[in-house]
Amino acid sequence: MSQEHYWKEFYRLKVHVCYMELQLGSTESTDRALKIFLAITSSASIGGWAIWKDLASVWGAIIAASQVVNSTRQYFPYKERLRALSGLLNDLDELLIQVESRWLDISGGLLSEAEIRKALDDLRVRKLKAFKKYFPDNMIPDNGRLFQKAEEKALEYFDNFYPAEQ
Question: Which pTM does this prediction carry?
Answer without folding.
Answer: 0.83
